[in-house]
Amino acid sequence: MIFDKFCWFKEKGMKRILLKILTLALIAGIFACASSSGLKFNPGTYQGTAAGFGGDITTEVTVDAGRILSIKIVSQNDTPEISKEAFDRIPKAIISGQTLAVDTVSGATFSSDGIINAVTAALQKSGVDIAALKNRKPGAGEAVQLVSKSDSADVVVIGAGGAGLSAAVSAHQNGAKVIILEKMTKAGGNTINCGTAYNTADPARQAAVSMTDAHRASIQQLITKSPAHSPFETELQQTVKKQYDEFVASGKPGIFDSPEWHMLQTYNGGDYLGKPELIRVLAGNSLATLEWLQSNGMEWTNDIWTVLGALWPRTHRPVKPLGTGFIETNLKYLEAQKDRVVILYDTKATELIVQNGRVTGVKATAPGVDYTFTATKGLVIATGGFSANKEMRQKFNTQWPNLDNASSTNHTGATGDGIIMAEAIGANLVGMEWIQLLPMGDPKTGSLSGNIEQGVEDRFFVNKNGDRFMNEAGRRDDMTKALFAQPDAWMWVICDSQSYPTPQVKNNFNESIEELINAGRAFGGNTIEELASKIGVPAANLRKATDDFNAGVAAGKDSFGRSLWRIKIDKPPYYAGARIPTVHHTMGGIEINTDTQVINKSGQIIPGLYAAGEATGGIHGANRLGGNAVADIHTFGRIAGANAALAR
Ligand SMILES: Cc1cc2nc3c(=O)[nH]c(=O)nc-3n(C[C@H](O)[C@H](O)[C@H](O)COP(=O)(O)OP(=O)(O)OC[C@H]3O[C@@H](n4cnc5c(N)ncnc54)[C@H](O)[C@@H]3O)c2cc1C
């Protein structure tokens, strides 16, 4: 019936009703009547089986002569929390794109590959050309027309990641009709794969965190640093000193924090290359943004932790795993506004349109359709960074050795499109040479999946000789440089049962330690010596490294200058997971002002054009603090949407 309805709507030209249906573009089969795929199948229903994460996955695939019609999961044994998204999305992506070339779901790679392989096994029985299906561009030939080829909205947003969806929600809340363009077949970008870490000073939640002498020393070090780099730093030093003195005098529980202390650490951690006014917006509004997300339905835990390179325990954790809470909250809001908001997937923005010096719209392309969208009030670029664009990395990188063969934590769509489009119409780019690498990549894929650290305080690192070699609580760039200097640029993260009180406890990427061990991606031992033997490092060295670390916990300091301590690693079982350097984040991008308006090469505002998220530059300077990006993208996305909606 749904196919008949779709075609009827199309024939009758009932665009608005059609939009309501097609905004739910992942509904399997809706696309099927739009056109033939050009593929040939022997009609029927076929079963196929392949290995998933927890055992075999069996699928049942129904095809007619020219299309994949449905995919049913007959049986599977994968962990629901990890694999749910893969089981939800991948069959729909295969059907909507009529292709096997679909993205895997980060954090659920084994399940994703298992589903694709099981569908492939079933389709092999249908006589279709599997190689053609695997090489087929998602959606190729599916001429689906969602809106008219030259539609208009108050606000057009490019990119349905964290920044883009927040911009869209905020634009709608400020009265705008919004069109969102997303080049992938799903929303989320890097944000949906993120490690949950969101930084903001939040005295209520931070009241539960203990303050150590090492924390106190860190504050003293930055507020007394002389000479100050700029009047901004002097002002922050004075404000933080006053706030800290008041905090100590008050006898309040918990750890000291304030937006200004967050600003000072962000400014210092980025080598004073971040723009003061943007740092002020980020740290000054991140708590309000957290509360805004909450008001839209997002749930937060009360946990405060320190993500890698955050330098201070102000990292917040959503209830939902990875970045799913951010994306689901915004998507749920937007999908409920179907008369005012349209999301077009598989639709890539290609060129900004400028008329009389003002950005008035964007050209975009979807399989079989070219669009020209007009933004009557404002256009927001929220296309993310360029960590997955090797040529662009090579072009701008001055900080690292050759990154040509470096792996990345990013999704494949992080190719800097918005930066390129903006520069083409005269936008200024800032900080493009600052590319963040993490010492935390999976040795096979470079992804963050499989990272066993639960928080900076609760683990240390050793190299292949079993020796500690760095301040594991330091800046991300310093840590990665230290790792590059180790044998094979390889290290082991070491923690104990305090990070994983039960085998079912999960890491920040929604994987339990039990699953990681079963998959050969982490190792456990009841003694340090047993763990050493499992990971092939000299037992005496790993014992010495552990003893050194534990002595550091007792003393609150060590020879590496580590400043964040909490627990001794002395409660078996002990765990280890391997890590290598990986490209993670691009700090540079489009120059914006505090209203997120894009600035041209002469320092002037480009009318009609806004940008937010990792596509922008100038906030983080030379090194981004861990946990600052997710706060940045939602804060600036929210501002961009409101300003675009309210523009004249
Ligand atoms: C694995 C991982 C873990 C991370 N964990 C954390 C963390 O815990 N805390 C933290 O602070 N930071 C983290 N980061 C960094 C942070 O997640 C990113 O900086 C942030 O999500 C970027 O958000 P964004 O909205 O700017 O871009 P994205 O979320 O990447 O969204 C951009 C969207 O634009 C789309 N797009 C691109 N080009 C086009 C085009 N031409 N037309 C249409 N659409 C287009 C993309 O497909 C994508 O959907 C992590 C990053 C990764 C990769």
Protein model, in words:
With 648 residues, the protein is an alpha+beta fold. 34% of the residues lie in helices and 20% in strands. It has 19 helices and 21 strands. It has helices spanning 2-12, 15-22, 80-97, 109-124, 130-135, 162-173, 203-206, 213-223, 231-250, 259-269, 276-295, 324-335, 390-396, 417-424, 476-484, 513-518, 528-535, 539-555, 628-646, and strands at 44-51, 56-63, 68-75, 152-158, 178-181, 198-199, 300-305, 315-318, 341-344, 348-355, 358-366, 369-381, 429-430, 435-441, 460-463, 491-496, 523-525, 574-586, 589-590, 597-599, 605-611. Strands 4, 5, 9, 10, 11, 12, 20 and 21 form an 8-stranded mixed beta sheet that branches. A hairpin with a 2-residue loop joins strand 11 and strand 12. The radius of gyration is 25 Å and the shape is globular. It starts with a helix and ends with a helix. The relative contact order is 0.14. Bound molecules: flavin-adenine dinucleotide. Residues 158-164, 181-184, 189-191, 193-197, 307, 348-349, 382-384, 409-410, 413-414, 417, 448, 585, 613-615, 627-630, 633 line the site of flavin-adenine dinucleotide.
